[in-house]
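Now for one record.
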Amino acid sequence: MALPPGFLDELRTRTSLAQVAGRKVMWDMRKSNQAKGDWWAPCPFHQEKSASFHVDDKKGFYYCFGCHAKGDIFSFVRETENVEFMEAVEILARDAGMQIPARDPRAQERVDRGKQLVEVMEAALRHYRMQLGTGAAAGAREYLERRGLDRKALDRFEIGFAPDVRQGAFQALTGQGIEPKLIIEAGICAVPDGGGTPYDRFRGRIMFPIRDARGRCIAFGGRAMDPNAKAKYYNSPETPLFDKSRSVYNLGPAREAAGKGAPLILAEGYMDVIALSEAGFGGAVAPLGTAVTPDQLQMLWRVAPEPVVCLDGDAAGLRAAYRVIDLAMPLLEAGRSLRFALMPEGKDPDDLIRAEGAQAMQKVLDGAMPMVDLLWRQETEGKSFDSPERRAALDKALADRTGLIRDPGLRRHYDDALKDLKWQLFRRKPKAQGQGQRREWQPGRKGATFIAPSMPTTRNSRLVKAGAGAEDHLREAVILAALISTPEVFGEFESQLERLECRDTLHGTILHTLLAYGHDGAETIRSEISRIVGEAALESLLSDPHVALTPPVRRPGDAEAARLCLAEELAKLQSSRGLAAEIAEAEDEMLGQADEAVTWRLSQATRARHSVGQGFGEDKAEYDTGENGARINRAEREALDSLLEAIRFSKSRK
C-alpha cells in the first residue's frame, strides 16, 4: 500500500544522505567539499582503498565510480542494512523524528488527485502570464519596469498578472474543461460563505508562481496594485499541494546556484529574491509571508550549512532576526548554523542594489555576523551591567539560551565565545590619567588593539612598599606566571580563576587575557598578553626573583609542578583574603567599644596575621586543613583563633 502523498518528500527534506552514509563510510576530507554538499569516500558496497564513492547531498543521490552502485537515501539504507523499502522508510523516519502514517488503501487515489491539481496550477500560471501582456496590466508592467525587471527577468521568474475581475481565472480554466471543484481545491478560486458562484482569489495583483523542490507549481503569491488593498501581498491558501510552513520561494534555482558555490541567502520577500538573483546572487530564497519555521530551516540546511539571513537593519528587522535565533537555537548542530546580514536602515536588497549596485550588496553579505554575535547583541543591547546583580542576570540569560543547544560540543564553543564577549564588556579601563581608582566598563572585540593606560610593571607595582598585602600580590604573580608557563592545566583551574579578584591592575588585565585565550595554547597566550600589556611588562612578571624561582616557571610545561603550585597558591590566597575579611568585620563590630584588654587581644591577632607568609617561596611553616579542604598555615589559624577570642571577649563586655 502507498504512503500518503508528500510523506517521502518530507522525509527526504528532513534527512541528509551525507549524514546517513557517514555512519557507514569514512569520508575523505581532502577530496570532499562540505560547503557544496560534495562528499567522497571508499565505497561501502565493494572492497577498495580509493575514494570512488560520491554523495551529492544537495540532490540526495550517490554513485560509485568503481562498482557503479547508485541510488538515493532509501536505496542506500536498503542495501547497507539489507532491509525492504518500507523498513528503510521506518528507519529513516525514526531517525528524523517522524511518525509513519497508517497505510491507507486510498493513498494512490490521493497521489493521482495531486497530479491533477498540479495540472490545474500550471494551467492557471499560463493564464496569468498571458494576462500580463493585456491592456489591463499596463500599470503592472510599468511598476515592474520601474523595479528594473526586463522581459528576460519576467520570463525567468514566470511573473504574471491577475486582472481585477471576479471570475477571470475561473472562466478561463473551466473553459479548458477543468472541473470547478479542482480549481477550488487548488486554491485558485473560492466559494462565497453563503454559497453561490466561485470567485477568483487573486484580483488586481502581480502574480509570482511558487514552485517546490521538484519544480512543480504548488501556489501563488500576489502583490496588490491598489495601494489601499487590505493586504499588499497575498498567498494561496493551504491546499493538498501547498503547506507554506514547509515551502520557500525560489528553492530550486537557489539550490542549483548554491551547488556552484553561491551563498544561500534568506531574504524577506519575492522582489528581494528577484533583485538579488538578477544582481548575480542566485542563491536567494524567501519565506512565504510568515515567520521562518523549523521545517524551512531544515530545508535550507540541506542546501547549505550556513545560510545568510538578510534582514532590514531597522527595529523590525532586528526583531525578526531575534525570532530566527530563538527558533534556531535548539536545531543547531556542528556544521549547521546561520549568519546574519543586516541591511542599511531604510533599505532592502532591491533598494540597495538599484541605488549602489551589486558591490554594495556584496559588502553587506561579506559583513554577515555569526549567530553568536547577534545573540550577544540581543541580550546586551540597551542594557546596563553596572552591578553584580545585573551581570549575574546576564550570565543566567546567556546560560539559559545556550542550554537549548543539544550538541554538547557546540554548546561548549558557544559558552566560550560568550565568555570572551563578557570579558570584553566587563574589562576595566581607567578613564584618564590622574583620576585615581575610578573605572568605566569598556566593551571590546577579540583581536582589537587594547592600549593599556600607563601599566605599572610587576616590579614597580609590588605592594612590598606598602607592607600589608605584599604576599597576596606575589601569590597572584606566581599563579599567573604558572599558567603562562604551563597553560595545559588551565582548564583544571578555570572556575577558580573566574572567581579570582586581582588587586593589581596589571595582574587583572593578564588574568582576563588568560580567561579569554587560556584554551588557545602557550604561543597564543604569550602573544596576546604581550600585545595587550606590552612585552616589557610580561618579562618583568616572569623575571621577578620570587616568581622565577617557583617550579612551574623554572620548568615550563611540567604539568604536575604547575598543578601542585596553583592548587597551593590559590588555597593560600583564598585563606589569606578570608582571614583579612574576618579581621575587618571584627574591627567594625568592636568600633567604639575597645578598651585596653580588647586592644591587646586584637594587636596579638594582628601581629600573628602579619607574620604569615614572611618566607614566601620557601614557606616551611606547618599546615592544618581548613573546613573547605584548603591547606591553612598554622600561624594563620592561631591568628584567627586569637581574633575570635577577642571578638568573644568584646561581646561578653557589652
Summary: Residues 241 and 275 are 27 Å apart (CA to CA). The two ends are 93 Å apart (CA to CA).
